[in-house]
Amino acid sequence: MSELSVLLVIPPLTQLNTPYPSTAYLTGFLRAQGYRTHQADVGIEMVLSLFSRSGLSRVFDELRARPIDELPGEARPMLSLERAYLDTIEPVIRFLQGHDHTLASRICQGNFLPQGPRFAALDSSGLERSERSPNQTDQAKHLATLYLEDLADLVQTTLAPHFSLSRYAESLAMQATSYDRLEEALAEPMSVTDEWMMESLWRHVEGHHPSVIGFSVPFPGNLYGALRMGQQLRAHRPDIKVVLGGGYANTELRRVEEPRLFEVVDYVTLDDGERPFLCLLEYLQGKRTETELCRTFLRAGPRVVYRNGAREPDISQVELGTPTYDGLPLNHYISVLDTLNPMHRLWSDGHWNKLTVAHGCYWKQCTFCDVGLDYIGRYDVSPGELLVDQIEALIAETGRRGFHFVDEAAPPVGLKQLALSLLERGVTISWWGNVRFESAFTPDLCRLLAASGCIALSAGLEAACDRLLALVKKGITVDQTVHVVQACRKPEFWCMRISCMGYPARPLGKR
Ligand code: SF4
């Protein structure tokens, strides 16, 4: 066991219903290499600090200390409902965490939850006309989600402009043509949600004594949180090395030259984290030189330099090991339902263990896609048997049997192998994933997938026009797409989502 200790952190904010899988993969891998490794989802912990009696008390206290005419109009009626919010917040969170189903009927009766601006669209039956469900639990979840959204809006408009329920300061990273706006935001005093974020981080630092902290930044909405935590670590614990990686770095920081970024982080790594992190840990232990780092940016004097001299290849799917959720608060995630659409709700409702059928994309030809990047271009499929071994390990660890295959485009051949292995070994799960429209999805294959537990697929269709599909090298025509949709709709109870470039996702709904 190495003397180095690693803490991998998901900064605010990804999903509230289930952990983002990046730290789970890297934790499983680094532990298998002998490194003491822990993980934390600071995003869910920050949100739960807010959605607690003490968190809301603090919010209301701070608002009451302000002149009433400085508060936005929507905030004033909510202030008058303070007592009702304080009395209901913890029961509502327990309900959304799945710990108290009995609350559903009280919520649906209509006078339990205080009703803020988001409830204005409800009709007299208590649901938006488009969002009625015969299922009382679903209705209650939807109403409870509106209630949380009201509180999130209140916090955003008064105390923490960067806060929302699904992302944190995303606009700062989206508009980051220069580092100036991020630097300005980091120079401002911390907001109340920043403070809860830091309280969560310090708890994990005190509990695990890490020598290295890795921030996983999959989306723009995770960048500010990571940099704010990096800034505070640099100020109070400069002995801890700070690493930043993930999907945002892989796409937006590939040519980073901004030395100011390295005032709050020590290293930025690109593409799959396993090999770069392993090399970095060996470097920090004096077992390899700086030039032998793998796909890593660091600051050398006033300049940013890129080191990519490792000779070892990337870790294959077979060597990757099984991800682990150990250390993440699985029973504390909350299912929110901002829509009752059966496909869309999968993204925010329920716990899904996340795996990939393959690394990269087997097609890798679409002209608009980042096919030159490793996460698309390096195709490596997991054997079906190995995938089912991982599935069984995750069921044993989490007790949950829902799986989301998070491939960019899961290969039909890999899905077939997976389905056959699941059926042969009698492993019962529910699963869904992302695919490419592909004529290999015949009615027979779709029936097989459904028999193995597939409940939904999503796929992207950039244009309903053969000429444009050919121009973007999509490799399929509109007619073939229609056949795939018809094949996918054969098994009962499937749903499918078609996302269109430039348009909102179009649900086809439940059959
Ligand atoms: S199918 Fe999807 S992942 Fe593959 S190249 Fe096309 S857009 Fe990229």
Task: Describe it.
There is one protein chain. This protein is α/β, with parallel strands linked by helices. It folds into two domains: 1-314, no CATH class; 352-507, Aldolase class I (TIM Barrel), CATH 3.20.20.70. Helices cover 40% and strands 13% of the residues. The chain has helices spanning 22-32, 42-50, 53-64, 75-80, 82-96, 103-109, 136-158, 170-174, 180-187, 192-208, 223-236, 247-252, 274-284, 374-377, 384-398, 412-425, 443-451, 466-471, 478-488; strands spanning 5-10, 36-41, 212-216, 241-245, 267-269, 296-300, 303-307, 353-355, 358-359, 380-381, 402-405, 430-435, 454-460, 495-499, 506-507. The strands form three sheets. A seven-stranded mixed beta sheet has the order 2-1-3-4-5-6-7, sandwiched between helices. Helix 12 links the parallel strand 4 (241-245) and strand 5 (267-269). Helix 2 (42-50) crosses helix 10 (192-208), helix 3 runs antiparallel to helix 5 (82-96) and helix 16 packs across helix 17. It is globular. 43% of the residues are buried. Residues 361, 363-366, 369, 371, 376, 408-409, 436 line the site of iron/sulfur cluster. Iron/sulfur cluster binds at residues 361, 363-366, 369, 371, 376, 408-409, 436.
Q: How would you briefly describe this protein structure?
A:
The protein is an alpha/beta fold and 511 residues long. Helices cover 40% and strands 13% of the residues.
